[in-house]
Known about the structure:
The structure is a homodimer. By secondary structure, chain A is an alpha/beta fold. Chain A folds into 2 domains: 17-269, Alpha-Beta Barrel (TIM Barrel), CATH 3.20.20.20; 278-366, Sulfite Reductase Hemoprotein, domain 1 (2-Layer Sandwich). Chain A is built from 13 helices and 15 strands. In chain A, the strands form 3 sheets. Chain A has an 8-stranded parallel beta sheet. A 5-stranded mixed beta sheet of chain A has the order 11-12-13-14-15, sandwiched between helices. In chain A, helix 2 packs across helix 3, helix 4 (102-110) runs parallel beside helix 5 and helix 8 runs parallel beside helix 9 (225-241). Chain A is elongated, with a radius of gyration of 23 Å. Chain A starts with 5 loop residues before the first helix and ends with a helix. The model of chain A is unreliable at 1-17 (pLDDT under 50). Chains A and B meet through helix 8, helix 9, helix 10, strand 11 and helix 11 of A and helix 8, helix 9, helix 10, strand 11 and helix 11 of B.
Amino acid sequence: MNDGMPxxxxxxxxSNPLPRTLTRRVEVxxxxxxxxxxxxxxxxxxxxxxxxxxxxxxxxxxxxxxCEIVRVTVPTREALSAFGSIVSSSPxxxxxxxxxxxxxxxxxxxxxxxxxxxxxxxIGSFERVDAVIDxxxxxxxxxxxxxxxxxxxxxxxxxxxLSHPEKLALSAVSFxxxxxxxxxxxxxLSAKAHDVPTTLETNRLLSRELPTIPLHLxxxxxxxxxxxxxxxxxxxxxxxxxxxxxxxxxxxxxxxAEEPVVAWELLSAxxxxxxxxEIVSCPTCGRTEVDLVSIADxxxxxxxxxxxxxxxxxxxxxVNGPGEARGADIGVACGxxxxxxxxxxxxxxxxxxxDIIDAxxxxxxxxx
Amino acid sequence: MNDGMPxxxxxxxxSNPLPRTLTRRVEVxxxxxxxxxxxxxxxxxxxxxxxxxxxxxxxxxxxxxxCEIVRVTVPTREALSAFGSIVSSSPxxxxxxxxxxxxxxxxxxxxxxxxxxxxxxxIGSFERVDAVIDxxxxxxxxxxxxxxxxxxxxxxxxxxxLSHPEKLALSAVSFxxxxxxxxxxxxxLSAKAHDVPTTLETNRLLSRELPTIPLHLxxxxxxxxxxxxxxxxxxxxxxxxxxxxxxxxxxxxxxxAEEPVVAWELLSAxxxxxxxxEIVSCPTCGRTEVDLVSIADxxxxxxxxxxxxxxxxxxxxxVNGPGEARGADIGVACGxxxxxxxxxxxxxxxxxxxDIIDAxxxxxxxxx
Lengths: 368, 368
C-alpha cells in the first residue's frame, strides 16, 4: 500500500478489532484454528464422493473463492476408497464427514484425512467412539465433534427441564468431557441449529462452559441463497462480534461455491479479514442521474478477479458521493452523464459516463 | 394455529425475545416506531420523483414485499409538485427526503408528508432548520434527523480528538439537543456509515447517550445485492440483538424491492417478526439422492405468495432430515427418488420425487 491510501491502512490497523475468546490452537492440515488465528473459512462438497473427478473439480472451485478447509462425506466403503484419492490430490485440507460407522472414520484417518467430523451421538457406543479417538490420537489428526439439533441424544432430548439450546450444549459438553478424559484434546466443536436464536444461545453457552475449545460456527439448513445468506450473516456475525467462533461455514442450499463468498463478505464486513476489494456503492435514489446499478454491478464483476483488498466507491449523486468517495482508496462520484474519479482524496479525472468503468480500472491498475 | 404445530407456537411465544431499549413512541403516518413497537421496515424509491406514475408503481411494488414506510427524494420545486400527488395516492406513509433547501422541507410538510428526513448539517443555518422544526411541529409531523458519514459538519470532522463514530454521534446528539431545546421531540434519528464497525459503534453511542430517541438503522452505500445483504444483515442484526434499533432500512444498489425482502428475512431470522413462510433446507452433500436445490428453489418460489408464517422443511437426507422436518410445521425428507411428507410430527404421505412439491403444497393448503 502506498502513501496515497490512508484509509486502507486504517482499515488494516483495525483488523481483528473484536475480543477473541482465547481458545486452544488446533491445526487442520496446516490451517490454524483457535487461539486468535484468523477465522478460517470452510465449506463442503455436494458431489458424489465416489466421483473423484467431480469432487476434486468442486474442491478446486471452492479453493478459488477462498475456501480454506473442505469437508467431504464418506458414507460408504466405496466412498472411502475414493476419499484417499481425493485427499492426495486436493489443494485444500480435507475433513471426512462421518455418520454412524466408526470404521469409516478410522479408515478416513488412515486414508489421510486432515480431520474427521463425527457426531458421537450417532456412532453407536462409546467403545466405537473411543476407537475413533484412539485412531485420531495416534495419527495426530483433530476431530470435530459436531452436534446437531436434528439428531440429539434421545436421553438428553427427553429432558423437560432443559431448553433446546441447553440440550444441545449439554450434549456437546458431555462429549468433550469424554474425549478429554480419554486424553484427547485436539478438538473443534460445533453445535448447529437451523434457527438463529438457538444458534446464538447454544454457542454462548458453549463458549462460557468450554472457553478453551475452538468453536466451528454455522447455521445449518439455513435455506436457499438469500435466506441462508441473511441467517448466516446475522447469526454468525452476532457471535463473531461477541468474540465467539474460530472457524465458520456458511450453509446454503445452492452451489457450494457461493458459501465461501458469503463467508468472506461477512469477515470483511466485520473488519476481521479481507480477501478481495470491497465496493462502497449508494442505493441510488431520485437524485441519481446515471445508471448506477449497472455501473456498480459491472465494477463488482471486474473486481472479483482482483486480489487487492482495496475499497472502491461507486456513488450516484453529489450529496454524499464526493465525501464517501474520498474515504475509499479510489472512487467515482457520478453527476449528469459523467463521473469524477477520486484517488487518495484527490480528483484525478473527469470522464464521460460511458468511460467511467474503464477509467476507474485504469486508475486501479496504477495503485500497485 | 392448530394443536399439531407445537414448534410454531413456541416460535411465536419467543417473538421479540430480545431486550428492546425503551425509546419514545413516534408515529409515521400511523406506523408506530419505538417504545417496543415492532421494528418497522422502510425503503426508498429510486424513480424520478417528477414521474408520479413510475414512483407510485414502485411504491406499490415495495408495499407488496412488506415495505411499511417509503422515502421519496424531493430535490426540486418540480419534484415537490409531484410529491403532493404521490402522497395522496400512496398506499404507504411517504417520508420526504430533503437536502440543502429548507423551503422544500416546509413544502413537503404542507403537501402531506408523513415525515421529513433532513440532515440539519446541510440545511445552511440553524434559522432555516428552525423553520422546518416549526413547520413540522405545527403539522404534527415527525422529523428524521439523518446524519451521514459522508457529509459530516466540517467543524466536527476536523476534531482530531474524536474517533469517526464519536464524530457521527456528536453531530447527531447536538442536533437532537437543538430540536429538544426548541420544544420538538417527535424525532427519529439515524447516523449511517458504509462500514459495519462504524455503524455498530456509532449506534451504540447514540443508544447510550440518547436512550429515549428511536433509532433508524441502516448501513448506507452497502453495495450490490450480495455484499449489501451481508453487511446489512450482520450490521443491523448485531445491533438489533443488542436491543438497539426501532426501524430499519436495508440499502442495496439493486432494485429497491429487494430491500424489504432482506429486511424481513433479517427480522424473521432473529425471531422478531415473521411475514412469510420460512424454509428450512439442508445444504445438500454427497449423501443427497435427489435434486434438492431445484426442489428447495421451487418451494421458495411458490411460498413467496403465501402469507402464512409457517416453517417448511426441505431436507435431502436421512441423517438429519426426519429430525429437522419434525420440528417444522410441515416438511419433506427425501431419500432415493422419493419423499416422506411430515406434518406436526406425523408422516402423512410417501410420494415419488416428481410429486414432492405438489404434494407438499396440497398439505400446506390443508393447514388452514
